[in-house]
Amino acid sequence: MDARIAAARQALGEECVILGHHYQRDEVIRFADFQGDSYKLSQQAAAAKGAYIVFCGVHFMAESADILGRPDQSVILPDLNAGCSMADMAEISQVEDCWEQLVALGITADDGKGLSPMTYINSAAAIKAFCGEHGGAVCTSANAASALRWGLARNPKVFFLPDQHLGRNTGYAMGIPLNEMVVWDPFMPMGGQTPERLRAARIILWKGHCSVHQRFLPEHVERVRTAYPGIRVIVHPECRWEVCQKADDIGSTEKLRKLVEESPAGTRFAIGTEIHLVNRLAKQHPEKPIITLDDAGCLCTTMYRISPQHLCWALESLVDGVVVNQIKVNPQVKHWARVALDRMLEIH
């Protein structure tokens, strides 16, 4: 399989760029021309020169690549089943219904005067477009604080989608107390909130989460500290607030990698993020003992769907002149999503 992938890559030459997210399995990411988190790969997609972008990630990432890419480029997702449970937690009709209720309450005007909509990049293109059209932007875990400041400079409130934990952790780190952040549950009347609480809140959080990072619990932090005195606990901001408060440091995927790389030899880490990245960091830094914060899994199953077989099939199809699993975003959605993504790139 490795030989077939290598042969197809060589045949395609510079016409094909392979992007690999950090959470990909080793046997796939080894073939990536560029590795990174969502934000870094969005930048690489925007700068790609080849006609084909093969995205070894999940659906929303491939959508972002299509939005930022040139009209003559084709974005390919090796397995269409590689989705994101967090992105699926914010459906556009639910978001539009929520917005209508907030408009009716006088919390915002329809054009976004009064409330800045902000969506994490882990969301569908339609949600990004909604934010772009209503004066908002996209953010990543790396620039979430800058994005929140950007949104609050324009309006007194921010509507943050779809990850409540990233929004809460970022807002709290900026000095916004927990009682000024409320969670909108799309399956409850008026989001499960009262008009008074919604009017008093500075950040309205969507009830969504990452199924991997939500698995980490405060007791996991306590357990590793007891077992390994002096261990440094670092976690992703998609983890629960209670976990982040017990950690030594919080950061995006890129920041977590940097913390490990810049630490002195002998530093012991327990890392609260997806297991493929943790294992890869452990292999890359044998001089620094690295373990996962919870050894009971924490695998991103949708990322894991991208296999060497899928990658090989996609590349060999391109060699044969056939584009498979192309991700194409509706032109109107693409316009407003591009507005929101461009704001993200400017904010960073």
If you average the pLDDT, what whole number results? 92
Strand percent estimate: 5-15%
- What structural category characterises the helix and strand content? alpha/beta
User: C-alpha Rg, in Å?
Assistant: 20 Å
For the largest beta-sheet, the strand count, sense and barrel status come to: 5 strands, parallel
Instruction: Give the total of beta strands.
Output: 13
SSE order, as H and E? HEHEHEHEHHEHEHEHEHEHEHEHEHEHH
- Domain unit count: 3
**Strands ordered across the widest β-sheet:** 6-5-7-9-8
The termini sit apart by 39 Å
Fold and architecture overview:
With 348 residues, the chain is α/β, with parallel strands linked by helices. It folds into three domains: 109 residues, NadA-like (Rossmann fold, 3-Layer(aba) Sandwich), CATH 3.40.50.10800; 125 residues; 80 residues, Rossmann fold. It has 16 helices and 13 strands. Strands 6-5-7-9-8 form a five-stranded parallel sheet, with helices on both faces. The longest helix has 17 residues. The two termini are 39 Å apart. 49% of the residues are buried. The mean pLDDT is 92.
